[in-house]
Amino acid sequence: MTEKRDVVTKGSNGLSEGRVNERPIRMPVDIFEDETGITVLADMPGVSRERLDVQIDNNTLSIEGKMEMSVPEGMEALYADVNSTLYQRSFALSSELDGSKTNASLKDGVLALRIPKREEHKARKIEVRAE
Amino acid sequence: MFRSLSNLNGGLFDEFRRLEREMDHLFGAGPWPNGIRSVARGTYPPINIGSTPEQVDVYLFAAGLNTESLDISIQKNLLTIDGERRVITEEGASYFRRERFDNAFHRVVTLPDDVDPEKVDANYRDGVLRITIQRRETAKPRQIEVN
Hints:
Helix content of chain B: 10-25%
Shape of chain A: elongated
Strand order of the largest sheet of chain B: 1-2-8-7
Radius of gyration of chain B: 20 Å
Number of helices of chain B: 2
Low-confidence stretches of chain B: 1-11
Low-confidence stretches of chain A: 6-14
Oligomer: heterodimer
CATH topology of the largest domain in chain B: Immunoglobulin-like
Number of strands of chain A: 9
Order of helices and strands of chain A: EEEEEEEEE
Largest sheet of chain B: 4 strands, antiparallel
């Protein structure tokens, strides 16, 4: 899985429309592989299920999310580490992964994606027989 | 450069981050003082603070937090947040990226002087911890009638 960086500059699915100058946050991810597939975990605090968009198109996995928080009216910022409300990151999938069977869940701002390998690509243990 | 040893991911964007850190370093070295409790950019968890005449809101962006690990305390206008964000390591899996924070954290926030430490409320939703501290009545703007 290789990361695509060029996609970061343009909103692919409309969530980023509105505030054109908003530079998306490139959220931290953990990615690991086991025998049956790849798991992606992404920290996206402030994003609810309705504001999350995960797409797989032409072997490109795009993750986009918009923070939505109820902020009191007239609130002024005293300090801000976070200057954007948009998360965006995308990855190129390799062909042995079956993107159509991706499973996604979101809990407490952590997105968990499971992308299984195609049946024929699952690693088989090769037994060595002693003659 | 020892810094490069701790940067396993590399790449162009991490170069930008490095540049940001250099800027921090540069400005931090200037003649003007840093806040005594100010922290380096990128300290976990990121915090935003907002205020209205009635209240001050502190937002901590910490996804997947076990709220039982949190220890929030306030002394006058000094808010301290201790906690832990642990990531479960998958045994036997091979990792390509490990960017998510996995450790204990500690942050101290200096709030405006007029907050009321008796009126604090905290809730955790969608990975954001929000702490609301009410301001004292006297600090709120009053309408003055002209007779």
